[in-house]
Each structure stands twice: as structure tokens, then as C-alpha cells.
Amino acid sequence: MLPPPTCKVYTPPHLAEAMVHALDPTPLDLWLDPCMGPGAFIAPLREKGVCKDRIVGIDIEPLPGMQDAGATTIRGIDFLMWCASTEERFTKIIANPPYVAIRKLHPQLQKSLLSYGPETDRSFALSSNYWCAFLSASLRVLNQHGDLAFVLPAAWEYALYAADVRQTIYKNFHSVEVHRCLEPLFASVREGCVVLVAKGYGQAPAKAVHTDHKTSHALIAALTEGARKTHTITRPSTKPPEDTFVPFSDLYNINIGCVTGDAKYFLLTESERVKRRLPLEAVRPVLSKARHLSASRITKTEWKRLFERDERVWLFYPDAKTLHLRPVQEYIRHGKRVCDLEGYKLKHRDPWYTVRDLRAGVGFLSGMTKLGPWISFRSMRGLAATNTLYVLTPRTVMRAEERCAWALSLLSTPSRRQFHELARRYPDGLAKLEPHDLYSLRLPPPIRTDDAISQYQRAIHFLVTDRVAQAVEIGDSFISESAKSDRTLPFCPTSLASQHARGARPPC
């Protein structure tokens, strides 16, 4: 009944040492590691002079670890079951808990959560995650005035299932520090992580600090030195209240791009078009890959860069004027030989070679991304997209500046937190967003638009060159400045349907 092996990611020695240092060890402390593993935290504790009798390590794994002799080690037991019955209390708790959805655990492990009241604390519900249950349960064995340090996933900051324990932490500790790393802390895990350091359990809250560190070295230095460094990025202090956030569905309709039925046949490079002697009138410019979204605006110049790289940027799209031409007829005959005309998509299309549902839209968005959702606006007449991309059509009347202001909001931290919560993640780091996921995003409203176009262009330049932190920083800064700006606009999205019903253009 062990948790899945994939949930075990062991703490690097330098990080373990920094976390121990952050808790200011003293000879009189009683330490608990609730998920000891090989004992990454035990070695630095012993180096700090903490004797083995004052360290308790718990682990469900029955096989011994390298540092077992350095602590009072209890193996082969479920921590949550042990925690519910023990009378021991600790002044310091340090951990890197397992990250796995509770619903994926063995039923016996799920059963041990029932005594914690999952109906009153969402940390222990089936919809929660094991790390959340470990953190919440640990508070039950922490002494008054005690401290803790946990390595947690980025979901600590936004997951709904973690709301109860988050609130408990902030209300019941004298000081809370959340150190977030903008690069992966673990070589085998691409998702973001945070280090939570909370001190003074049971004392009135006095300080809560959130710090973003550009590198893992910067995060470790901050934990070791006990102060924020100049190379950290502090999040904006001014954020719009969440009850003013606007659903993405109020701004755009999301449609899947056109379905070809056989991409190898219908999508052509320029060299293939020339080889087949197909006239330009028989093809249509198209985007067919997420990597084709290369800028904040897809202009003819941007599209030509793809064209010159011999990407598949043409869609075979004959019309009545070109259908009689010999090269077109030859290519249709070629299609009858290479395409599966009995396949569902082609069989139900008449004629089979006519692609339906070409939507131009105002912008494109990829549902498969490592970078998070962002919009590439269309600025080329006749440009369409295939079903590997989403096509956005507006539900509200907006100028280009207003569209870019909302697109910056989509890049901001509040929006990206929701993305990390909603996205289905794959092992290679890709995240999948369905249209209903995008519709449920709620964006913090900008109230100014000056400089939005250039700021968005700059942010997307950072994003597509893998400098995500800088792109998010621009989005955060713009939204934060919007909230404080004296130059405001009545920025109130109103659906086109309601506008037409009133027969008037909305004030925005």
C-alpha cells in the first residue's frame, strides 16, 4: 500500500541544508521529519549538533535509508495514522512531502484520512493532494511557538483544496515566508516549487513575505542568509480584488481551427506547392503548429518567415474558379490514392476535398503549451488556423489597445495561478487546456490602455524566447499600475449580443 514511486522526489543536499538553517536549530529543539525518505534533512541536522534522540523520522517505506542511524527512525508506518494517535509534540517540523492526488492513493491510505474530518478541512478530501494532508496534519503535532519548513508545489499558492490549510498557516504563525523559484528546484520535476517557512505557531501574525527568486541558488542563499536579496522579484502589492475579475468567456468565443481530415495531404509547404504546380488561388495561408505562434501579432512578415523556412503554411483550398485547372485536378486524384476516404472526417464531407469551418478570428491560442496561455493576434488578411490551435472571435467591442491590455492580464500571476490549477499536465512538461478550461479563467481587469500594445509586444518577445519570468513580470507590473493609475477607462466588457439588443456601442 505504498504511494506511487513517481511521487517521491528527494531533496537536494544544498536545499536541505538551507531549510535547516532557516529554522535556527538549537540543542533543545525536538525535530520531526514526517516523510524521511533517505534522510536528506537528517545529515545537516546532525552537522548542526542536534543529537539523534531529538530527531524523529517517519516513513512508510520499510527499507532502511542511509541516515536512519542519525535519528529515531520509524519505518513502515503511515504518517497520517501515526500522527492521529501520537502524544509527542515537536518544536521544529521539516519536510518534503509526497506530491500525489489523494484519489490515486491505495484505499488503505485514503482510509487513514477519515479521522481528520475531510468534510471540515479540504486538505484531507479525495479532491486534495497528499502534500496538503501532510502539512495540515503536521500542525497537530507542532508545539506552541514552534516552526516549520516545507518544500511544496506551486499549487500551495492557488489550489482550492489547499485554501483551508493556507488560511490556517497565515492566521496562526507569527511570520510566514514563501520563497518561490522561477526555475525548477528538482532536476526531474519541471513544475514550479516553493519553500514555506513559518515561525511562531500560535502567536499573532506579524509578517507575511512572498519572494520570487530567479534561480535555485538565489533561493538557497536567501534561506541561508535570512534576508531577501537584490536579485529577487517582489510581487506587486497592489492587486485588483478577485470579485472584480472578468471571465475570459466575456471577452472571446473559442473555436477549434479547421479540421483537414488528413494533414499530410491538405497542408503543404511552399516547395510542395511549387512541385505540384498548384496556383496561389487554390491554397490559403494557414497556421498549423503551436510553434507558428511566434509573436504578439502574426503579420504578413511573420507568416513569411514560416514560409521561407518551408513550414506547412498552405492549406489546399480549391474553389469553383480553380477546380477545373489541371494541377488542381491532378492533386485531387492524388488525394484519392493517398487519403483514407472512408475515414470519418472525409467520408462525411461532400466533396471530400473541401475543408469546412475556416474562421479568421482576431487571434490564435494554443491549447498545448509549456508557457501558459497567451494570444497571438491576427494581423494578416485571410490567415486561418487548423485544429491544432484555437481561434478567438470577440464577444465585446475592443480597440487593439484594449485587446492587448486584456492579453497582458492573461499573462499576469493571478491568471497563471488559475492556469496551473486547471491544466492537465503531461510528463514532458506540456500542459493541455480545453476550451472550457479557458472559459473558466477569470482575468484581473486593466483600467488603462496606454502603452499596452508595446508592452504586450515586449512581454511576448520574452515569452517565446523562454524568459517566462520576465513576461509575467511585465503582465504583473501592467496590471498593478493599472490598479493605481489615475488615467482610467470605463473598462467594462459587454457581450456583443447585449450591445446589439440595446442598439448601442458600450462605453469601452
Structural features, described:
The protein starts with 12 loop residues before the first helix and ends in a 6-residue tail after the last helix. It is 31% helix and 20% strand. The strands form five sheets. The chain has a nine-stranded mixed β-sheet, with helices on both faces. A five-stranded mixed β-sheet has the order 11-20-16-18-14. A four-stranded mixed β-sheet has the order 12-15-13-19. The protein is of the alpha/beta class and 508 residues long. The chain contains 18 helices and 23 strands.
Give start-end ranges of low-pLDDT stretches. 227-240, 481-508
Average of the residue pLDDT scores: 85
| Approximate strand percentage | 15-25%
Structural class computed from helices and strand pairing? alpha/beta
Number of strands: 23
Oligomer: single chain
Major β-sheet strand ordering: 3-2-1-4-5-7-6-8-9
Tell me about the largest β-sheet.
Answer: 9 strands, mixed
Kindly, what is the distance between the CA atoms of the first and last residues, rounded to a whole number of angstroms?
58 Å
Write the layout of secondary structure elements.
Layout: H1 13-22, E1 31-33, H2 42-47, E2 55-59, E3 72-75, H3 79-85, E4 90-95, H4 107-111, H5 130-138, E5 142-153, H6 163-172, E6 173-181, E7 193-201, E8 207-213, H7 216-225, E9 232-234, E10 246-247, E11 252-256, H8 263-266, E12 267-268, H9 270-275, E13 283-287, E14 297-299, H10 300-308, E15 314-316, H11 326-338, H12 344-347, E16 363-365, E17 368-369, E18 376-379, E19 384-385, E20 390-394, H13 400-411, H14 413-422, E21 424-425, E22 431-432, H15 435-440, E23 442-443, H16 452-464, H17 468-484, H18 496-502
Helix pairs in contact: 1-7, 3-5, 13-16, 13-17, 16-17
